[in-house]
């Protein structure tokens, strides 16, 4: 029973479909693991609980698992991941579970529809376990901006699991779920993936529907998979990806063959693949142990036959400042919908106060400090007197970054960098220093601004603190398969090394009950 929580999703699916084990048993094992290590969904287990989940739907999960078992017993065709449990970031709408975005402002709101990705998971027979913690409205790099308390990194409970999707990545790292979905606006799938030792993928912008993803920065937001292996991520990617007419920015093109690429990568070498090491994404400010693990990973890519070259992307230095104008600008507009009338919380509506007063009391009480900071920055950047100098300039920098990628991809098939400049930092360490917090996404943001594909694959641990490090692989738009191939080849090579990481950490069971 207990090894079930450390198996890959692909292997779980194989056993479920061969009827060696039922989806109900697999689901129960994961619910038990959640019960043992996660603590109550309000975070009250404190420093001993992972607190990856804001809501666990045990009954719903077991019902979905029973349905999957029935479909398999009937012998008809089932999807490759039918019966496998999955966790959902709590900014994806679900009709049968609350959607909070880790914000008080959505208190009591029940979405009237499922996000397209959720509908596709259900249709494919996957088993949603619950909703995972995040920085409020996905704004943050540590999951400490959640209104419901931080998630803890399963490899060291005193450290952050990254953010904003720390709950999704931590649930996968801790063996609470074999798979999870996240959203990546500036790195929120890849950065938590890197610091929790899991795989995280930001697909090409527009290739996974955003319908039902509560919008943060619409030109950057992208849903993607979290998993413990590259193949598992590809399998989930294929379930949720592809054109959706409910999303105006959905690309009407075939999904890149990500599963095929993951399988080919795991079997083959990298002969003929040109890998560019981005000079601007290393050096000063990077933790020495992260650079050591990254250098080792690049050496492995070379040993696998890849042609490794240095490339320069000089405009990447503008990525962070450009992002922190564009993302808040779009957020200030997107979050205007939380007006106390249409969703969740309403404060001070005593029949005497004006609509404006109720709205400002509600927004004052409902939004946390970081969300307010972003709304103010964004409103300022878009204001008549500042628009050209701030938002307009950031958009120009965005164009330069796109051009850097285009030039680099003329000579390289993929680009690589560390996913993050440091390993997981301590809980509390950066909460009072927003700029230090923002630096966590230094390497991940360029791919969001350009809209191309990028993923993070574990590349061992940092020799200076023993914590996981991520290798980022970036590919051109609609060439996600290239990143998967390189990552799978690397993962296979790495898994046979003597210092290959354990599958999941040992976590002390909590005495709490839900
Ligand atoms: N950490 C970045 C931010 O705070 C990215 C967040 C994300 O990708 N959702 O904006």
TrEMBL record:
Bias (Basic and acidic residues): 505-514
GO biological process terms held by the UniProt record: translation
Catalytic residues in the record: 89, 164, 188
Transmembrane segments: none
Enzyme class: ligase
Reaction catalysed by this enzyme: L-glutamyl-tRNA(Gln) + L-glutamine + ATP + H2O = L-glutaminyl-tRNA(Gln) + L-glutamate + ADP + phosphate + H(+)
SUPFAM superfamilies: Amidase signature (AS) enzymes
Domain Amidase: 26-481
Keywords: ATP-binding, Ligase, Nucleotide-binding, Protein biosynthesis, Transferase
Keyword Transferase assigned: yes
InterPro entries: Amidase, Amidase_CS, Amidase_dom, AS_sf, GatA
Region (Disordered): 495-514
Cellular component GO terms, alphabetical: glutamyl-tRNA(Gln) amidotransferase complex
E.C. numbers: 6.3.5.7
Function statement: Allows the formation of correctly charged Gln-tRNA(Gln) through the transamidation of misacylated Glu-tRNA(Gln) in organisms which lack glutaminyl-tRNA synthetase. The reaction takes place in the presence of glutamine and ATP through an activated gamma-phospho-Glu-tRNA(Gln).
Homology family: Belongs to the amidase family. GatA subfamily.
NCBIfam families xref list: gatA (TIGR00132)
Protein name stated in the entry: Glutamyl-tRNA(Gln) amidotransferase subunit A
């Amino acid at each position: 029973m207990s090894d079930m929580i450390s198996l890959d999703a692909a292997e779980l699916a194989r056993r479920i479909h061969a009827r060696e084990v039922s989806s109900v048993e697999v689901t129960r094992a994961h619910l038990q693991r959640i019960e043992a290590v996660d603590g109550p969904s309000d975070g009250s287990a404190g420093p001993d609980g992972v607190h990856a989940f804001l809501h666990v739907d045990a009954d719903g999960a077991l019902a979905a698992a029973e349905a999957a078992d029935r479909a398999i017993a009937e012998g008809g065709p089932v999807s490759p991941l039918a019966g496998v449990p999955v966790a959902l970031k709590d900014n994806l709408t679900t009709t049968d579970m609350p959607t909070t975005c880790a914000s008080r402002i959505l208190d009591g709101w029940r979405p009237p529809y499922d996000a397209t990705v959720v509908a596709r998971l259900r249709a494919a027979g996957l088993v949603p376990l619950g909703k995972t913690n995040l920085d409020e409205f996905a704004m943050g790099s540590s999951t400490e901006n959640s209104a419901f308390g931080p998630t803890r990194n399963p490899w060291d409970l005193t450290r952050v699991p990254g953010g904003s999707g720390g709950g999704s990545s931590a649930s996968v790292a801790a063996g609470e779920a074999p798979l999870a979905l996240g959203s990546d606006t500036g790195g929120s799938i890849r950065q938590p993936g890197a610091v929790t030792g899991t795989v995280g993928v930001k697909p090409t912008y527009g290739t996974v529907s955003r319908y039902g993803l509560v919008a943060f920065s619409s030109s950057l937001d992208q849903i993607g998979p979290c998993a413990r292996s590259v193949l598992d991520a590809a399998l989930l990617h294929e379930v949720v990806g592809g054109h959706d007419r409910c999303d105006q920015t959905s690309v009407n093109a075939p999904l890149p063959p990500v599963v095929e690429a993951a399988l080919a990568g795991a079997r083959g070498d990298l002969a003929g693949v040109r890998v560019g090491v981005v000079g601007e994404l290393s050096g000063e400010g990077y933790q020495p142990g992260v650079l050591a693990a990254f250098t080792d990973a690049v050496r492995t890519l070379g040993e696998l036959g890849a042609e490794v070259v240095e490339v320069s992307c000089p405009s990447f230095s503008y990525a962070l400042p450009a992002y922190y104008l564009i993302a808040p600008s779009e957020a200030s507009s997107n979050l205007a919908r939380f007006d106390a009338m249409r969703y969740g919380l309403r404060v001070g509506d005593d029949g005497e106060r004006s609509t404006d007063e109720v709205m400002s009391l509600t927004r004052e009480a409902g939004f946390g400090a970081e969300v307010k900071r972003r709304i103010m920055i964004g409103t300022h950047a878009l204001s008549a007197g500042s628009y050209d100098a701030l938002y307009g300039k950031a958009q120009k920098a965005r164009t330069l970054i796109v051009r850097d990628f285009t030039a680099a991809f003329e000579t390289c098939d993929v680009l690589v960098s560390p996913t993050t400049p440091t390993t997981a930092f301590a809980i509390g360490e950066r909460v009072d220093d927003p700029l230090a917090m923002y630096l966590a996404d230094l390497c991940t943001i360029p791919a969001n601004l350009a809209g191309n594909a990028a993923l993070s694959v574990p590349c061992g641990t940092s020799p200076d603190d023993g914590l996981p490090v991520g290798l980022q692989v970036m590919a051109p738009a609609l060439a996600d398969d290239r990143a998967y191939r390189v990552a799978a080849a690397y993962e296979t090579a790495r898994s046979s090394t003597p210092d290959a990481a354990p599958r999941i950490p040992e976590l002390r069971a909590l005495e709490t009950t839900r």
